[in-house]
C-alpha cells in the first residue's frame, strides 16, 4: 500500500488534505479531507460524493465542507469511479457506463469508502462513529446502495441529502437495485427534485423517493433544469445536516 498525502487548496482557496492511495489488491482511491482549525467535533464525519463528470471539488462540495469546518466538523469527499484523480476515458458518463458494466461495481465503491474512512481516521486521530452524507445525481446513484450497505453492516448514518436521480432513464438497468436499497435507508433524508430536469423524469424521481424507508424524509422541489439547484437549498442542506449532528451527539465520543 502506498499513500500520498498532500496539503492543497480547494477551488475556494481553503486548505485541504488530499490523498492518493494505491493498493496492491484494490484500485486507486483518491479524495480530500477538510479539517477544522480547532475544536474538532470528534466521532463524526461529513461524507460527499459528486455528480457525473465532476470530482471531489465539484460545487457545492467545497462550499459546504468549509461551512462544516467553521462549525468544527470535518468533511471527506472522494472521487467517484473513473472521475477526478482516477479519471478514465472522458472522465464522464461514457467511462462510467464502462465501469458499471463490470461485475461487483457497487462492492468496489463500498471498498473505496472503507479505505477513505480509514485514511481519514488516521489523519484526524479519532474513530469515525457516525457519518452524514451529501450526494446528488451520481452521488445519489452510488449513495443509495452505499447508505443501504452501511445500514446492513450496522454502521451509523445520522442523515443524508439526496436527489436529482430517479429509477428510470439512463439508470433503468439498475432500477431494481436502487429501489431495493432505498428500502434499507432509515435515517432522516432530504431529497431534491428539479421540476424541469432533462435527465430524470419527475415520476422516476418520485418512485425512488417513495421507496426510501426513512420515516422522516422530505421532498424538496424547485423549478429549473438538472443542474439548477438554488443556492438556498445548499444552505438548507448545511443547516439540516449540522442540526442532525447536534441532535445526535449521544452517538459520538466525548
Report the CATH topology name: Rossmann fold
How does the helix and strand content classify structurally?
alpha/beta
Question: Structurally, how many domains make up the residues?
Answer: 1
Helix content: 25-40%
Distance between the termini: 32 Å
Specify the CATH homologous superfamily. Answer: Alpha/Beta hydrolase fold, catalytic domain
CATH structural class: Alpha Beta
User: In order across it, which strands form the biggest sheet?
Assistant: 1-2-3-5-4-6-7-8-9
Q: How many individual β-strands?
A: 9
Could you say what the CATH architecture is?
3-Layer(aba) Sandwich
Radius of gyration equals 17 Å
Largest sheet, described in full?
A: 9 strands, mixed
**Silhouette:** globular
- Fraction of residues in β-strands: 15-25%
Averaged pLDDT: 92
